Amino acid sequence: MPTSASASAWTTVRCSTSTQRRAILPWATAFRSQATATCAIRRRNGRAVARPPADLLQGRRSTVLASPPPDLRKPHPPSLSSRALTIAGWSAFLVAGLLFLGLAWNVTARSALVALDSRVANFLHAHAGGAALTFFFAVTQLHSPLALTALSLAFAAVLARLRQWYWILTLAAALGGGMLVNVVLKASYERLRPHFEDPLLVLTSYSFPSGHAAGATLFYGVLAAFLVSRTYDWRQRAAAVAGAIVAVLLVAFSRMYLGAHYLSDVLAAICASTVWLVLCLSAGHALVRGRLDLHWLAAAIVIVLVIAGAALVPDEWWSRFEDAVQQMNRLEALLVFGGVYAAALLLLLPAWIFPIAAGAIFGFGWGLVAALLAVGASALAGWTLSRYVLRRWIEPRARASRTYKAVDRAVAKEPRKVVLLLRMTPAIPCCLKSYLLGLTRVRLDHYMAATLAGVLPDLVVKVYLGAAGRGALAQGGALNWTLFALGIAAFATLSFLVGRKVRAKLAL
């Protein structure tokens, strides 16, 4: 930043002739752009960047600097630009995901990796003792679930003091969701822990993947990402990332040293947590930039909870539930399910899980019938309530909404097409569309025909996913659950892309 000493280097040169102006114009233009960019930097330490002379920015005089100020630099170093960080993050996502799949396959198939795990575990157990044992026991205790929760709360308090609300949301999603994913993976693979005659730790839970390594990866990953976002110095960024890597490796090695996990357990935990961490950081970044709605984030959280709940529910519970459904009259069961589904839609509750549940309970055919009838009934009820009962309360508030104005203009031109496109996009809650469309001039027959046609593809995919999930429950195995999860992820991605296209078409 230019000081009083460096300010003396500024020498004002009046350009009295056109030759002088032509000679100095390229240099002055380039320096003006650099100076303007430098003044836009918000310094994190609270010091303001000095502005260049006003006559340079106003174009009244051209100024020459004997030697450029040392603090003039770009906001992001070229080696750590925003694009480079994005590429690095998604590269880590891809590599970590492939490594986890490879490790999981080797553990399931009991390949040579399992023998290597046993040799490494026996070697470390034979040489455990002394000061190293005390040190690694302290490391693993400092990263227990209780200690990690305390560290996360302290970090969240610091973020709240800095008013970094999206980072608090990212931290909660990363640690909460990541540990839930870890529990689901343990329940899916059911790998026993290393067995020794004189164990250092006595543990009864499953081993693959490591919970301590997963928690450390998630916590230190969010911490390093936050520190990287707070500085433009590449040395400080590199130090933050290196410190996080060292901390994670220490925790992972401590679990192996104490005989709690195999080598593949900690590697798989780091890989799986890296995948989840990249997703959470990307979602948080998109929320900050306004590229992601909380609606989509909530949908992703519900997806994780659904898969986790289905995987963690004991098999005998599913057997009892299936027996109870089979003992009921099919028509009675369909009516009860459809009524609950329609009520959830009318109350604007997150009801997208109901079609998946319909496929899991009734199978694909009857599940599709139940879901289609429930959506049709809720759409008709919402349209009727909005037009004839609640219009005087809803319409004044709706007219202040940009979404309603865009829908009203589009419906006036092409009613059936607009209703069809609206029903195909998940960007707006289902029954909110019914309430909005009830305020427009669309005819009931056009409205119902376009509604049923628009929701049919969405319901077909969701009911099929439910039926496929039922098959995964019946057959078991990590492969079936992996394919089921990939199907849900593919459907969510497709819905997001379709939603963007429809919103662009409607100019929402």
Looking at this protein, list some descriptive labels:
75% helix; two-stranded antiparallel sheet; mainly alpha; 508 residues; elongated; 22 helices; 3 domains
Please explain how this structure is put together.
The protein is an all-alpha fold and 508 residues long. It folds into three domains: 4-65, no CATH class; 81-292, no CATH class; 313-506, no CATH class. Helices cover 75% and strands 2% of the residues. The protein is built from 22 helices and two strands. It has a two-stranded antiparallel ribbon. Helix 6 crosses helix 10 (234-257), helix 16 runs parallel beside helix 20 (430-438) and helix 18 (402-413) packs across helix 19. It is elongated. The two termini are 45 Å apart. The model is unreliable at 1-24 and 40-81 (pLDDT under 50).
In a few lines, what is going on in this structure?
With 508 residues, the protein is an all-alpha fold.
What's the structural blueprint in terms of helices and strands?
Layout: H1 4-7, E1 10-13, H2 18-39, H3 54-58, E2 62-65, H4 82-109, H5 112-126, H6 130-142, H7 145-161, H8 165-189, H9 211-229, H10 234-257, H11 263-288, H12 294-312, H13 315-327, H14 330-346, H15 353-362, H16 364-389, H17 391-398, H18 402-413, H19 415-424, H20 430-438, H21 444-475, H22 478-506
Antiparallel strand pairs: 1-2
Helix pairs in contact: 4-11, 6-10, 7-8, 7-9, 8-9, 8-11, 8-12, 9-10, 9-11, 10-11, 12-22, 14-16, 15-16, 15-21, 16-20, 16-21, 18-19, 19-21, 19-22, 21-22
